[in-house]
Design brief:
6 helices; mainly alpha; elongated; about 150 residues; Reverse transcriptase zinc-binding domain-containing protein
């Protein structure tokens, strides 16, 4: 992405030593830790929070339904045909608004991933307890929690 949209090499005053600058750099170099970047770990490419489609930079920036509330505060709806131009404008002609958008949408994504992970851990725990109790009482028809 960087070599596609970055036409000339020059010093830029957009990077600071803050989280939003890190996100901007990762987005520009296509190295945000999204599902499509984790492919070498044999994981699914489907978005972990909305489960609707492959999580790539376009999905993260413009399509994920879970982060829609945050997105509407910063940008108007982008048509699928215009996503490439919008990415170029957002990441390579950016100001502090775009960096703030990246930071806020990343925070929303992370918050939802934490909720999903907690729920998954709770269900795993409940299933483990259920299995242990059923093994202790194999002839009992109803589940007795230990």
């Amino acid at each position: 992405m960087y070599e596609t949209f970055k036409k000339e090499v020059k010093e830029e005053n957009i990077y600071r030593n803050d989280f939003s600058s890190i996100l901007l750099f990762q987005a520009r170099t296509n190295s945000l830790p999204l599902a499509d970047e984790k492919s070498n770990k044999n994981k699914s490419h489907i978005c972990e929070i909305c489960k609707n489609e492959e999580e790539d930079i376009k999905h993260f920036l413009f399509r994920c339904k879970i982060t829609e509330t945050v997105r509407k505060k910063f940008i108007k709806e982008i048509k699928k045909d215009d996503e490439e131009a919008a990415i170029k404008d957002m990441l390579f002609n950016s100001d502090n608004t775009e960096k703030e958008y990246l930071k806020e949408i990343w925070k929303e994504r992370r918050k939802n991933k934490i909720i999903i992970n907690k729920e998954s851990a709770r269900l795993k725990y409940e299933n483990t307890v259920k299995e242990v109790c059923e093994k202790r009482n194999p002839f009992q028809k109803r589940v007795v929690y230990c």
